[in-house]
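Work Package 3 (structural annotation) set out to generate three-dimensional models for the target panel prioritized at the project kickoff. During this period the team completed the workflow that converts sequence records into discrete structure tokens, so that structures can be stored uniformly alongside our sequence database. As a representative example, we reproduce one entry of 269 residues exactly as it appears in the project archive.
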Amino acid sequence: MSENLLIHEEHGILRLTIDRQARMNAIDLDTMSELGETINAAQTRPEVRVIVLTGAGKAFCTGADLAAAAAAGGNEAAPETVMDRANDLVRAIVDSPLPVIAQVNGPAAGVGTSIALAADLIYAVDTAYLLLPFTSIGLMPDGGATAVVAAAMGRVRAAELALLGARLPAAEAAAAGLITRSLPAEELSAQVDAAAAQLAAGPRRALQLTKAAINAATLAHLDDALAREKTGQVELLTAADFLEGMTAMLTRRAPNFDGAVRPIAHPAK
């Protein structure tokens, strides 16, 4: 069990908390894998009735841990592995027969946004925001974001978030139907606890079939989106623009994208 994932179970509610506060809960590959595996394993345990996902401290999840990628020269794992783990986590949330609640206690960025939006109920503190900053570092949205955001908000609003990397405050996300509700900080935990308790006491099979029916009607193209995102992101993760964008972000300077599509030149091993 990783020290970066806190697991607590009580009264049929499984609470999973990403705890990497020094990195604003930026998620590394091991934590991503453990989170997905824990969600998948929960469906085999009849005592678990609902799952709550949240982050420790001031953030929900600020995306993939680029500091770890930079420390490894941008090559800490094969791009296919990175994408498979992200996609497996999103599919675990969507495919789980258990209701999943996202308690967005602070910013959700990058794949953190995708994790939150994969949940069935999404409650966010009113100071939180959603952010898809991928293009600013030479990447594209992933984790199914290209499908989920566009389905909820429409093509043009989705393009603003994805192409310009515009922040979407929680209140606007709720008004657009992207999240369930935006709440003051002092009300967030109580709302999540009430929803989780109601679901935990509900009819498990009826909730499972209801979730499956809603997802079938609204996320029918999720697999296609995940496949497109994987293909595109694998290409981008091996391009020079990503290394430039990541280096610029970590050194707090503006990136210099020259438009050329070049593979990253890694030293021979």
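The longest helix spans residues 79-95.
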